[in-house]
Structures are given as structure tokens and as C-alpha cells.
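Molecular chaperone DnaK: structure, please.
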Amino acid sequence: MIDEKKIEKIKKDLLKRKEQILQDLQDLSKKDTHETDNRTAKFPEYGDKPDENAQEISEYSTTVVTEKVIEKTLEEIDGALDRIEKGIYDVCKYCGGEISEKRLEARSTASSCIDCKTKLQEEND
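Here you go.
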């Protein structure tokens, strides 16, 4: 069982990371009421020349991928914070066993124990 002081420190770190991620997401995107998360990647405007258009498309594509990674990370952080609030932070969502303290220190958003994660990865290979 992970110590309450460590959980509080992890929670504080997660909240700080979440705040930074939300700022990063805001920098990468703009409000869009047509999107489920109300945000869409900003499209850069460099000009009308073919090379400028190619640069815009390339940068936009990178921004869209980056935005998706950031959103996924945000979901993982929210999940970890929710598990902390429910008192099940160190409980594996697959087997109900304990997630080791070392694993949670290494990956604070982990929701599964090493054994279950390894089995899942092997099934997907």
C-alpha cells in the first residue's frame, strides 16, 4: 500500500502537470464549438505561395498529432486524479491487485499493474 504522503505529492505533481498541459493545449489550439472537446488545432498562415502552403500543411499536421497526444495525456492525468479521490489509486483496473509503488513513481498515471500491462502488450503484438 502506497503511503498517503507519497500519494499527496503525486497528486500535487499531477495537478501541476495538468495545468501545464492545459496551457500547452491552449497554445496549440483555438475554441471550436463543432468539436467535442471545444478545441481544434490552429492552422498557421504564412502566405499563398506553394512552399508557404506546404509549410502550413506540414506544421498543421504536426500540431494535430501533438494535440491528440496532449489530450490523451490529459485523460490519463484526470483518470489518476479520479482514482486518488476514490481511494483506488494503487489498484489495478484489470485484476484488482496492487500497483507497485515503484511503478506509480515511474509512471504516475499507470492504471494497471506490471503483470496485467505485460499481458496486454503481449496480446497486442
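Notes: Helices lie at 4-28, 50-86, 101-106, 114-124.
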